[in-house]
Amino acid sequence: MIEIGHRAAVRQGRTPGSPPSGPPSFHGAFETHLTVRDETPADPDRTAAGLELHAAARGLKWVHILLERGSTPSQPMLTLHGSGSAGRMRERAAAEAAELRAAGFEVVRTKIETTPWADGVPVTDAAAAALGPAYYFEHHIKLLLDRTAPGAPSALTGLADLAGPHAAHLSRNARRVRADGREERFVTQRCRAVGRDTAERRLAALLAALRAAEHDTASVEREFVVHDSDETLDDGWIDETPAYGAGAAT
Description:
Elements: E1 27-36, H1 44-58, E2 61-67, E3 74-85, H2 86-102, E4 107-114, H3 125-131, E5 136-145, H4 152-163, E6 168-173, E7 183-192, H5 196-212, E8 216-228
Antiparallel strand pairs: 1-3, 1-4, 2-3, 2-6, 4-8, 5-7, 5-8, 6-7
């Protein structure tokens, strides 16, 4: 996930959020995830261990995300960071994917994200419509849950029910274990075919609902996805259809 920092300078000759005259062009800070197939879902640590060794040898980061539900819940991935153009980041991602394949991994997804304020990211809904539905905002809210408290299992179900109307669902980092005994859960929200202003309003509505339910929020991260080679890996996880319902601000 991209941490919020200084906004990238607007490139000369482009108005942030305006529809592009040619192929979409994005410039700024990028984070890329190369997801590899988990060959042994019954033993997810096996693939993850191999990816950890590969990442360490190349000086890269990796993470093992477990979706709370869906067709592909186990998603080990390599993470790359860079800045400049989206085209340059795609070239680097392709090179790293080739290295993964040479090491025996099957790369099943390339996902490239930038900050919501990067050059080329749509501000208005009209600008987002001009880009098309392949591009979307994604928000990650990290919550701290006390899983030892009475009613904790049902509370997790309640959290998923709360997130659903906001086009969001739950995941966790399989490697993350806290010393205080609490568990981390990510509430991931998707905002598709809308501009940054609408996406921010939907995020605010979700955060307000979480606060009202007295959830402990550790962090909030905002991203804009400029390339996603295979969204079907998330089938059955996030239901985006409620995004225009009463539960999500438009």
